[in-house]
Design goal:
- By secondary structure, this protein is of the alpha/beta class.
- It is built from 15 helices and twelve strands.
- It is globular and about 60 Å long.
- InterPro entries: ABC_SsuA_sub-bd, NrtA/CpmA_ABC-bd_dom.
- Its main location: membrane.
- Belongs to the bacterial solute-binding protein SsuA/TauA family.
Length: 369
């Protein structure tokens, strides 16, 4: 990647990041929800770390299941001892980045595009990616009556969650690879890219206002439950079928002041991922229980079973794929070529992995000095 100073990213995202009221009005990241009601309390008499409380953020969806399960099962709290954990949930990346910048959260689970956007907009001063969480779990689901093959996508209306978000960038890149033309910002062209909040995408599909969607789980499986067909799994487009869908980020200020707390959260994440992978059925149930607490409704088996199988939980942030995703955003015209050197600091993660007898993870040349 170029070492030139990053300039501007997607104009719409810049407005979103700057205006909290617009975030709420657009549905692109409503106010965070304090999820303290589902948080196991710190053990009485347990020793506190260097801070009384750590504030974490994540989304109430399956690609953030490490956070859902780690909080639900008390695996983070166990590592934090007397330091309490305060979780909040978000509907989209820009609002979580805003919360991190404001100090409303210290550590967050988030996708690659908002990580890149947040890092470049601050000239590399606000966050670091400190670990991985999930890979995969993104699909192109279509109405089989209207779209029977990949070439039939041309001329159709396909939803993505948000202008410039991770799935939007991936879909625009796929469109370009087909030789088709679409104006990235308007979504108009050989394919109509309809930016639609994941919460309303299934209703838009049922009403016929969209012909399909390039979306993460569990939205993809909700569309299948409504009669949609998986036309393409994004993992098939990546080497080894792996690409980052969820990172762990931290405020650089918090990382510098409280490395012991960050290390404890990373230990909790590594142990949670190990437990998820060793106990997939129990972990799926725990994630669904957490979702029920957050939304008031558990996912039905017809949705959560296939959705869960398509997500891989990993400590590796898959740094090389983040670099590729940034290149895709540049290619789409949504991002000027960024300097991502320093976006990763995997020092504490590798310390935790070494203690667990696991291999260290490479930063793909994008590590902090």
């Amino acid at each position: 990647m170029s070492a030139a100073r990053p300039l501007t990213t997607l104009r719409t995202l810049a407005v979103i990041a700057a205006l909290p009221l617009l975030l709420t009005a657009c549905g692109y990241g409503s106010k965070s929800t304090d999820d303290g009601k589902q948080t196991p309390a710190a053990a009485a008499g347990a020793k506190k770390l260097s801070v009384d409380e750590v504030k974490i953020g994540y989304f109430p969806n399956l690609t953030h299941a490490t956070a859902l399960v780690g909080v639900q099962e008390g695996l983070f709290q166990k590592e934090l001892g007397g330091t309490t954990i305060k979780p909040s949930t978000f509907n989209a990346g820009p609002s979580e980045i805003e919360a991190l910048n404001a100090g409303s959260i210290d550590i967050g689970w988030i996708g690659p595009s908002p990580s890149i956007n947040g890092y470049t907009k601050s000239d590399g001063k606000n966050l670091r990616i400190i670990g991985g969480s999930a890979s995969g779990g993104v699909k192109l689901v279509v109405n089989p009556k209207k779209i029977k093959s990949l070439k039939d996508v041309k001329g159709k209306k396909i939803a993505t969650p948000q202008l410039g978000n991770t799935q939007d960038v991936a879909f625009l890149n796929w469109i370009a690879d087909q030789g088709w033309k679409v104006d990235a910002e308007s979504g108009k062209g050989d394919v109509s890219v309809v930016r639609t909040d994941n919460k309303i995408t299934p209703d838009a599909y049922k009403s016929g206002s969209i012909d399909g969607a390039w979306v993460p789980e569990p939205t993809a499986s909700k569309l299948v439950a409504e009669g949609g067909k998986v036309l393409l799994d994004e993992s098939t487009l990546w080497p080894d079928k792996k690409f980052v869908i969820t990172n762990i980020i931290v405020s650089q200020k918090f990382l510098k002041a409280h490395p012991d707390v960050v290390e404890a959260v990373l230990r909790g994440s590594v142990k949670t991922n190990a437990w998820i992978n060793a106990n997939p059925d129990e972990a799926k149930a725990a994630a669904n229980k957490a979702l029920e607490k957050l939304s008031g409704k558990a996912l039905p088996a017809a949705v959560i079973d296939p959705a869960w199988k398509s997500v891989q939980f990993t400590d590796d942030p898959l740094a090389s794929t983040l670099n590729t995703e940034a290149e895709h955003a540049v290619k789409a015209g949504l991002l000027e070529k960024p300097d991502l050197k320093g976006i990763y600091d995997l020092t504490l993660l590798n310390k935790v992995l070494k203690a667990e007898g696991k291999s260290e993870i490479d930063e793909a040349g994008l590590g902090a000095e």
